[in-house]
Design a protein that fits this description.
Layout: H1 4-19, H2 45-53, H3 56-65, E1 143-146, E2 149-154, E3 164-171, H4 184-187, E4 199-203, H5 219-233, E5 238-247, H6 249-257, E6 267-273, E7 287-293, H7 306-311, E8 318-322, E9 325-329, E10 339-344, H8 359-370
Parallel strand pairs: 3-4, 3-5, 5-6, 6-7, 7-10
Antiparallel strand pairs: 1-2, 2-4, 8-9, 9-10
Helix pairs in contact: 1-2, 2-3
Length: 373
């Protein structure tokens, strides 16, 4: 089975070729890299893509996020004199009680030198592992089949059984192109810091373009199946609590789903990103983090958390700046509750990566989530 990442690259490349444009590379800050020209610079690419697919939003995402350009190779290295350096010691396996890692390969000899000796074998690993799913990040996509549907799983590396972790269920917004649905892993970009923050992140994919719509009643049972799978398969960790994260329609859906009675003993909080101004009906028992862009005219509005924060014993709202984001925090809440809003200056709804949260904001969101553990 090919990974979603490969299919995403092939699909976007094919779509952009049908538009008659070349790809545009995107770094974390939205800048282009590689390639002689970009989709944005070519005439009529977006228009041709919309014409071919009939979906302007997904065309904008594809044109902004895909990349076909490459970076030129470096010049040949000069050979070194004397003996080569031996290979590094092998790394032990990450499964509990795993076998010792293999020895390193012999080093390559320099000019006139002998090859170095192979490295020593590594010690056995003792971290929890899911067979077939690569731990850690960044940019690791490990699709696991749960109930016949692919789910992306991120989890910490080299953490022994019993390690306290937080489980995050990550829901994408409206997206009609299947291979672009995992964009939420970039919008809420916690996967690269899953190990240092001890996070288990599951990113499922809706049947249709939106959760719970035209799904034949299958999306909600699937999410429950994913949750049960995480608690069963990653039960060697000490899963302290669960958070839901959603962007756009994913946030609107998460706002209701997190309040289901069967999640009352698991769900500790919800991150509502560009999902409107309404609070969850169960805000008396969950922590809430809300985000919205200053230029978001698609689903505008900040959450009014005064009542929920007051019920949780938090202090009065206090404003601060975090990079280019205005943060409203209700501090010193009782127990492990947390309430914060993030108002991203100069950013829109999030169909373009330039409107995604800054890294400093991502780190603050993750820290708030982890604080409830």
């Amino acid at each position: 089975m090919k990974t979603l990442g490969l299919w995403a690259s092939l699909s976007m490349a094919a779509m952009l070729m049908s538009c008659g444009g070349s790809g545009k590379g995107a770094d974390g800050d939205g800048s282009s890299s590689g390639g002689a020209s970009s989709c944005a610079a070519s005439v009529g690419c977006l228009e041709k893509c919309v014409c071919a697919t009939g979906d302007q939003v997904t065309c904008e995402v594809a044109c902004a996020a895909s990349s076909t350009g490459g970076t030129g190779g470096t010049s040949p290295a000069t050979g070194g004199a004397g003996p080569g350096t031996g290979g590094a010691a092998g790394t032990g396996g990450v499964s509990t009680g795993g076998a010792a890692g293999a020895g390193g390969d012999p080093g390559t000899g320099g000019v006139g030198g002998d090859p170095g000796a192979g490295g020593a074998a590594g010690a056995p690993g003792n971290g929890v592992v899911i067979p077939g799913a690569t731990c850690g990040g960044p940019n690791v996509q490990s699709p696991i089949s749960i109930g016949g549907r692919e789910v992306l799983i991120d989890y910490p590396c080299d953490r022994p059984p019993g390690t306290p972790v937080t489980f995050i269920l990550n829901l994408h917004g409206t997206m009609s192109i299947e291979v672009l649905k995992p964009y939420i892993r970039g919008y809420f970009n916690a996967a690269p810091v899953s190990t240092q923050n001890d996070l288990v992140i599951a990113t499922p994919l809706a049947i249709g373009s939106q959760w719970g719509r035209q799904d034949g009643g299958q999306d909600s049972p699937h999410l429950h199946e994913v949750i049960d799978w995480v608690y069963a398969e990653l039960g060697a960790f000490d899963i302290r609590n669960m958070w839901m994260v959603g962007h756009s329609w994913g946030a609107i859906y998460a706002r209701t789903f997190v309040c289901l009675p069967e999640l009352s003993s698991r769900a500790a909080g919800v991150v509502l990103m560009a999902g409107g101004s309404s609070m969850p009906a169960c805000s008396d028992r969950v922590s809430v983090l809300g985000t919205v862009g200053e230029l978001d005219f698609t689903v505008p509005g900040e959450l009014n958390q005064d009542a929920a924060a007051q019920a949780h014993g938090c202090g009065a709202a206090a404003l601060s700046m975090l990079g280019n984001t205005q943060v409203t925090e209700w501090p010193s809440c009782a127990g492990v509750f947390v309430h914060k809003n993030y108002f991203m200056l100069g950013k829109a709804h999030g169909t373009d990566p330039v409107d995604w949260p800054e890294v400093i904001m991502r780190d603050d969101l993750v820290a708030a989530v982890v604080s409830t553990r």
